[in-house]
Amino acid sequence: MPQRTPPTPLPAFSRDPAAGEPLHRQLYTAVREAILAGRLAPGARLPSTRACATDLGLSRSTAVQAFDQLLAEGYIETRAGTGAFVCHDLPDAALLSVAGDRRPAAGGTGKRSLSERGRRLVQTSGVSRSQNVSKRAPRPFRPVTPALDAFPTALWARLGGRRLRGLSPELLDAGEPAGYRPLREAIAAHLNAARGLHCDPEQVLIVGGSQQGLDLAGRVLLDLGDEIWMEEPGYFGAADALRSAGARLVPVPVDGEGLDVLAGCARSAGARLAYVTPSAQFPLGVTMSLARRLALLDWARRADSWIVEDDFGSEFRFGGRPLAALQGLDPAGRVIYVGSFSRVLFPALRLGYLVLPPDLVAPFLDVRIVSGRFSPLLEQAILADFIAGGHFMRHLRRMRRLYAARQAALVAAVRRWGDGVLSVRAQPAGMHLIGWLPDGSDDRSAARRAEAAGVETLPLSACTLERATPPGLLLGYAAFTSAEIEAGVRTLCDALEGSDRR
Ligand SMILES: Cc1ncc(COP(=O)(O)O)c(C=O)c1O
Hints:
The chain is α/β, with parallel strands linked by helices. The protein has three domains: about 15-100, Arc Repressor Mutant, subunit A (Orthogonal Bundle), CATH 1.10.10.10; about 150-395, Aspartate Aminotransferase, domain 2, CATH 3.40.640.10; about 395-495, Aspartate Aminotransferase, domain 1 (Alpha-Beta Complex). About 40% of the residues lie in helices and about 10% in strands. α11 links the parallel β4 (about 225-230) and β5 (about 250-255). α2 (about 50-55) packs across α3, α7 crosses α15 (about 375-390) and α10 packs parallel to α11. The radius of gyration is 23 Å and the shape is globular. The protein binds pyridoxal-5'-phosphate.
């Protein structure tokens, strides 16, 4: 029985003051490498964080941070009341089997030969990695996964089959770096009509998902050490991309009207760039007010700064029309608009786009050519047909109805089961809600208890740079049926309460 298994000692761990990495990161790396090298076997029980801190002469919070990271990335799991164990299903298992015996040197960090830039690149928050390496099918309440079961796969296959059967030399040859022209035309027409943008197809650059767009923006627009405003709490993927470009992230609080522009000015009036999600703030879901939008544009104009508008959440609005995008309100050409098909269609498509101010088109194109050249043409052509045939708008309308119903199911289930442990507030948009925990709770440990009970959530504090938010869990509802949502909420609330209320 797991309770009786004595814990396996952690690997010998020597601090490396020259590593330039915080201690929790060094401990995380040492344990991860021991797991990957098989020195900590699948199923092995780990010492408690308290014992680990005492044995290794570290503070408890250092051990907790390292364990949290390992848990978030799927290397370890917790079981209620019995502690932490090495997972059987490791995120890097596939990688290792390909790499054969080329395992990291024992005790090494595996980063000694990296450049300064390379070291910066691998300093991601870890949340992105944990959200992207999971091999499990989505379980309630994985955030940001769309309703894959409701995607019109037969129609997509028909459009794809038609393109494959009539495969033209045009689709076999190298594509335009800016992207397949009919797709850029379809995107520009959609954004101008539905999102209030003012753009022509020349300003649209097709990229491999918005993550590549953010990466490009960071590399083209930022110098090492440039300060940038990040929403707090905010989107970890953007933070990772812009941090890896060498930027210094300045957290700017978000309130009921979106990013607090005055607070941003107080913290860093001359910031080089602001990253915002105005249509449905990630992760809180707030819509940025018109007054704030105008204030932000005004700041960018006066400070000669850029605004990266990530419009990821714009399409799934259930109540009324969304406010027009910032890009359409900006005569000064300060806004770089980022969009993605990951949520509106499916993540594996890996297509997104930037809408650039005219004078940025040429430099972005040059960097795009160096970095990946162009996105796969066949997928772009199928997507262009999907949009031109009216299927895109039809799919959005269907998903809006479905997600509104799924959100209502989540709200109803939390009202039924959440008394005293969990509460939610309905939102007019989005694919997840924040499940608020009682004041003073620790949302990371709540997420661990949920995980041990089989429920997947992301703690709100994982989306912060300074961890100042009230405790909450991101509860994605879009990918799950009402019955799954009801059962998931029950299990979650039981786990949070620490009791079985059957
Ligand atoms: C605000 C926001 N932008 C962008 C993305 C990711 O988009 P992509 O898959 O296109 O990189 C996400 C995914 O969670 C997101 O939450």
